[in-house]
Every structure is written in structure tokens, then in C-alpha cells.
Design brief:
By secondary structure, this protein is mostly helical. The protein has two domains: 5-57, Arc Repressor Mutant, subunit A, CATH 1.10.10.60; 68-206, Arc Repressor Mutant, subunit A, CATH 1.10.10.60. The chain has helices at 15-28, 35-40, 46-57, 68-81, 85-89, 97-112, 130-135, 178-183, 200-206; strands spanning 188-189, 195-196. Strands 1-2 form a two-stranded antiparallel sheet. Strand 1 and strand 2 form a beta hairpin. The longest helix is centred in the middle third of the chain and has 16 residues, at 97-112. The two termini are 38 Å apart. The chain binds a DNA duplex through helix 3 and helix 6.
Length: 217
DNA sequence: AAACCATTCAACCGCCCGGGG
DNA sequence: TCCCCGGGCGGTTGAATGGTT
């Protein structure tokens, strides 16, 4: 196994390493990732621990194949947001940005016949400037029902599986400052005083799949 | 069975940002 | 204002796996 700087291990995680990391999080909670190596003796850097938890070990993560509904949602969101994987993943319950990114690159981009984009971070997304894209505020519960086994109601806009700040889950309407609202083209007024956000359905309808040419499987 | 090629996806890397001192 | 640190993000890599010859 390769060793990085400070003797940290790299590469695939072993079951033993997973167990150590999960034990630590159970005891101390998430955060302060760089402390884990000191506290537990785990030969992994903080960044690697964080990634392992977020992308694999977190109980809120859904493993397994993507459903057609998820594919459809990702395609629409990608059309709307571009390669903003964390934003997209935040609206696909149980999926991480890494999962979504990999799934897009290995399956969906081929389905759609999309050439791989080489966009840099600083480049604006396909349809929205960066900050504005982040402020697209969509009550996802109007689009995606929580799992039937969940006790969370459709109105429970802060439904997140493990109660953490993980990106996965159901998000409510994010608060915006007045200035941000005014600058955001997706916000509009329906009368003299009220600002209204379009629903995700509205946005996705606007960026309909009809714009795509499917090349079959 | 073996060699080769293609695909998948976990993990890493570099960069950026925000908060605290 | 600057620096450091923790954390987040998107792009890329490479080991593992599956398929083909």
C-alpha cells in the first residue's frame, strides 16, 4: 500500500479502517477530520476520512443502481445546473456528488451522446451563473416523494436521513437576502410584496428532456 | 486458460472559500 | 490584513472487474 506524506495510507479502504472510522464518528460525531488520525491511530489523512464517510459509510447513502426516476432527475438537473454535482446530488435523495458524477460520466452522458465537458470551476455553468445557480431554491418535496417507509411528511422540508448536514435528503426553501433575490432571475414577484420561487417542476419543465436527443441504450 | 481491452467507481488531487486568531 | 486550518467542490486517476478474443 502506498504511503503519502506524514505516512498516511492511500488507496482502497480496508474493513478494519472503516470500522475505526465509524467507531470514531459514533463517539465524537463528524467534523475535525484531521483529528481522527491522532485520536485513533488510523493512517489516513482527514480529507480521506471525510470522503470515505460522505461517499460510502454514511447511513444516509443509497447504494445500488440508479432508478429511471433518478436518471431522469439527474439529466434534468444537469441541464439546468451544469456540472454542479453537489447541487445536483443535494436534490437526489440518498446519492452523493461522487455517485452522481460517476453515474453521469459512465452512463448518462453516453445515453445522451454528450461529449465530455472540460469546464473549469471558474467557468459559468451551462445555464446559470455560479452564485445564482446555488440560489435556485426549489422545494423538492413537490417533485420527489420521500420513501414510503419514512415517517417524514411531505411538509417536513428538512428531512435528512441522519440528521446531519449531509447533502443528501430533502431540503426546504433556502433563505436569501433581498439583494440576492433581486439579482436572481428565477425569482419573481406575483404581487407588490411577495417574492415567489418557481418549483423544481416548473424549472425542469422549462428545461425539458425534449431538448435532448436520445441515442438509445 | 490466458491475454487483452473496456468499463466502473472509489479515492485522490488541486483549488477554493469561510471562519478564527 | 494576513495566515492557518477545516471543509467543500469538480476533475482526474487507477485498481478492480467484466467482457471479448
Amino acid at each position: 500500500m502506498e504511503r503519502g506524506e506524514k505516512g498516511y495510507r492511500k488507496g482502497l479502504w480496508t474493513e478494519e479502517e472503516d470500522r475505526i472510522l465509524m467507531d470514531y464518528i459514533r463517539l465524537h460525531g463528524k467534523g475535525r477530520w484531521n483529528r481522527i488520525a491522532k485520536v485513533t491511530g488510523l493512517k489516513r489523512c482527514g480529507k480521506s476520512c471525510r470522503l470515505r464517510w460522505i461517499n460510502y459509510l454514511s447511513p444516509s447513502i443509497k447504494h445500488g443502481d440508479f432508478s429511471e426516476e433518478e436518471d431522469d432527475l439527474i439529466i434534468r438537473l444537469h441541464n439546468l445546473l451544469g456540472n454542479r454535482w453537489s447541487l445536483i446530488a443535494g436534490r437526489v435523495p440518498g446519492r452523493t456528488d461522487n455517485q452522481v458524477k460517476n453515474h453521469w460520466n459512465t452512463n448518462l452522458s453516453k445515453k445522451l451522446g454528450v461529449k465530455k465537458q472540460r469546464t473549469k470551476l471558474k467557468a459559468p455553468s451551462q445555464t446559470l451563473p455560479t452564485k445564482e445557480a446555488e440560489n435556485v431554491s426549489v422545494p423538492v418535496d413537490t417533485f420527489f416523494e420521500p420513501p414510503s417507509t419514512s415517517s417524514a411528511s411531505a411538509n417536513d422540508q428538512t428531512y435528512i436521513n441522519d440528521g446531519s448536514q449531509d447533502k443528501v435528503g430533502y431540503f426546504g426553501v433556502e433563505e436569501l437576502t433581498v439583494n440576492e433575490e433581486r439579482e436572481n432571475p428565477f425569482w419573481f414577484t406575483n404581487d407588490e410584496s411577495n417574492l415567489c420561487a418557481p418549483t423544481l417542476s416548473d424549472l425542469l419543465d422549462q428545461y425539458s428532456l425534449d431538448n435532448f436527443v436520445w441515442h438509445g441504450l
